[in-house]
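Running this now, will post back.
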Amino acid sequence: MIFLPFAAALAVMPASGGGVHDDPLTLPIPGNADWEKPQTPLKLYGDTYFVGTGGLSLVLIDTGDGLILIDGALPQTVEATKANIRQLVFRVEDIRYILNTEAHYDHSGGLAALARDSGAEVITSPVGAAALRTGRVDAHDPQASDIPEHPPVPNARGIEDGQAVRLGDTAVTAVFTPGHTPGSVSWTWKTCEGVTCVDVVFASSLNAVANGTFTYRAHPEVTATLRASIDRVEALPCDLLISAHPDNSGGDVKIAALQAGATPNPFLDPSACRAYAERARGRLQARLDRETS
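Update: finished.
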């Protein structure tokens, strides 16, 4: 499959008239069909809502003084994201910050359009912000050889590890978890129902995936970084886990159960981060074993 750089893609776009893909920031980027699967938005707990697709997590936090959105999915899912936000009776224009877990097109491809349409500031790690501003993944990314470009996000800003994005009474804290990408970030915050508050973790992908000639055996520093990130996610206070891809943590099953009215809330699981970390360790070891054989 051949992917054009976005400047080249714009050059070959038809000039005319009213088509759904006339917006250069929402030109489709081919990917996994599940990433575009429609998903009804729903409340996860407190002021935290799922507004993503069947295969990509996007979370909306209502701070009372504006909205915070985490991740942007694909360019072609932007309209579905905005529709999900409106279905929950929120305004896209009230999004003040958009936080990003990684600068891969399946999590950041929609950021440019969402930032433009909301006026929000996009925030991630400094390494991730540099990639977002160019629309290209970092050269040291294990998948750099095959990841297509996405619309650049000129206003992307980096913050430091452990720094919080504050809006109203809500503080969403950056937890750097590099390895899957050099600039990956997980995000944590508290959300409450009445007097009961829970610790939420939106975990970045921790999968050991590589393209081209990259191997984890040949890059022990990347392997060590990923192991440390897995350990870090495992140790986080974690009552409610959202993984960047729902099916990486059983989130797809939990969403279906919650949507069907399951009680107790299937997302309330203090063992979820430990299980997510253990799965990631297994995938990393399986990758190393394949590279050895």
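Residues 272-292 form the longest helix (21 residues). More later if anyone needs it.
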